[in-house]
């Protein structure tokens, strides 16, 4: 991809430049430093805020920070209670982490597309992609982690044999075993792929449109980027919410014995 | 755009975040929420109980007030009765006293009349004596004529 960058100039060059990660390494062992850095910083921000709220947590009159944290906790807890009927210490904190982290990732999309790369270039960083959710690695990392949890809980709750039975004998009974197995495997594997691609696709497209708007003359830009940014506020929240809710739903499906 | 080792790094970060949230963030915040819920529920229950107690107390107060009113009217009635009795008694006493005074006065009058009569009798006797002395022109022996004088004075009575 780096050869393309150097080859193309003008609009195409600008777009490609914006979509190229700051990376080190070769082949599979490439690391996208910008994705890793921004998601770690945002994760730290999330932890810092909630830790602060948790440290000062009181059952009396809550402060501003605690109020906000509790609002989110209650919101997530309601979502979990709505779809998950078992008892799990993991699911609610997992859902909270996913919602906040994905939201913060997506929120990076609302920064003007050029400002952080510009600051980066002043510090000698050539490429910078600031929105972790436009990196497939980030979205897949999360969805594959969720997938692992789904498999783990399926086996833990139903037992290895119970899980295998579910894969083989549902939905059409034992006489159509290969067909069942195929259907089930596709269903299971579709979960992480759809989770990751949905988030990635939405945010990638949103980012691309911001980049395209940035290519227009300056007097047209606000007219287009302002409504798109407002619309994007909805999208970033919605995508974070969808990721969280689907995670809860998948995990509750894993907990349910048919 | 390709999938690479960033994936592994991201998964590690994600796992750390979830672990931290599960361990240090969710429990205290959630507990404080639950605790507050309980506090509010308790407070509401206490308020309801208080209201019920107010109703009960009002009922009780009404009963006490009613009793007090009844008692006070009884006391007033008694007092009125007693007052009437006292008035009647004093009337009786006054009447008796008056009668007694009248009787005493009558007796005194009688006595004084008697005294006056006695005095008059004496004076008349003296007058008669001195008149007789003058008429007779001679001293009459008082002792000798005591009987006659007495007779005369008795005639006066």
The count of DSSP E runs of length 2 or more, i.e. the number of strands of chain B, is 0
Look at the structure and give the mean pLDDT of chain A.
87
Shape of chain A: globular
Gross morphology of chain B is rod-shaped
- Category by helix and strand content of chain A: mainly alpha
Q: In percent, how much strand structure appears in the residues of chain B?
A: under 5%
For the largest interface, the chains and their residue counts are: A-B, 50 and 32 residues
Category by helix and strand content of chain B: mainly alpha
State the helical fraction of chain B.
over 70%
Strand % of chain A is under 5%
The rounded Rg of chain A comes to 21 Å
Q: What is the overall pLDDT average of chain B?
A: 89
Characterization of the model:
The complex is a heterodimer of chains A (258) and B (157). Chain A has nine helices and two strands. Chain A has helices at 2-7, 10-18, 33-55, 64-83, 91-107, 115-122, 136-169, 177-215, 221-255, and strands at residues 23-24, 31-32. Chain A is globular. The longest helix of chain A has 39 residues, at 177-215. In chain B, helix 1 packs across helix 2. Chain B is rod-shaped. The interface between A and B is large, with 50 and 32 residues.
């Amino acid at each position: 991809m780096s050869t393309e960058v150097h080859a193309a100039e003008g609009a195409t060059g600008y777009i490609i430049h914006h979509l190229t990660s700051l990376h080190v390494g070769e082949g599979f062992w490439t690391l996208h430093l910008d994705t890793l850095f921004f998601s770690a910083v945002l994760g730290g921000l999330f932890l810092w805020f909630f830790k602060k709220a948790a440290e000062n947590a009181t059952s009396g009159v809550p402060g501003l920070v605690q109020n906000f944290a509790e609002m989110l906790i209650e919101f997530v807890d309601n979502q979990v209670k709505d779809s998950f009927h078992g008892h799990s210490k993991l699911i609610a904190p997992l859902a909270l982490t996913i919602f906040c982290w994905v939201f913060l990732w997506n929120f990076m999309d609302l920064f003007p597309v050029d400002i952080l790369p510009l600051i980066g270039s002043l510090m000698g960083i050539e490429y910078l992609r600031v929105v972790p959710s436009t990196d497939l690695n980030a979205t897949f990392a999360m969805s594959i982690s969720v997938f692992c949890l789904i498999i783990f809980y399926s086996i833990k709750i139903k037992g290895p044999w119970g899980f295998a039975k579910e894969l083989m004998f549902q939905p059409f009974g034992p006489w159509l075993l290969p067909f069942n197995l195929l259907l089930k495997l596709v269903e299971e594997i579709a979960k992480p792929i759809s989770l990751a691609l949905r988030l990635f696709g939405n945010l990638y497209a949103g980012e691309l449109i911001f980049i395209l708007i940035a290519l227009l003359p300056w007097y047209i830009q606000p007219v287009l980027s302002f409504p798109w940014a407002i619309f994007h506020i909805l999208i970033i929240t919605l995508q974070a919410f969808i990721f969280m809710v689907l995670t809860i739903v998948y995990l509750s499906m894993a907990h349910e014995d048919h | 755009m390709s999938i690479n080792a960033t994936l592994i790094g991201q998964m590690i970060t994600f796992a750390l975040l979830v672990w931290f949230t599960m361990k240090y963030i969710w429990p205290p915040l959630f507990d404080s929420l639950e605790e507050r819920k309980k506090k509010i529920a308790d407070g509401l229950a206490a308020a309801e109980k208080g209201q019920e107690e107010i109703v009960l107390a009002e009922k009780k107060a009404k009963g006490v007030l009613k009793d007090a009113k009844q008692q006070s009217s009884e006391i007033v009635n008694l007092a009125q009765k007693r007052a009437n009795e006292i008035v009647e008694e004093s009337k009786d006493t006054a009447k008796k006293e008056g009668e007694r005074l009248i009787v005493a006065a009558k007796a005194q009058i009688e006595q004084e009349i008697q005294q006056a009569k006695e005095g008059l009798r004496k004076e008349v006797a003296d007058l008669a004596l001195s008149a007789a002395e003058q008429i007779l022109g001679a001293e009459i022996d008082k002792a000798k004529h005591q009987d006659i004088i007495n007779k005369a004075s008795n005639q006066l009575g």
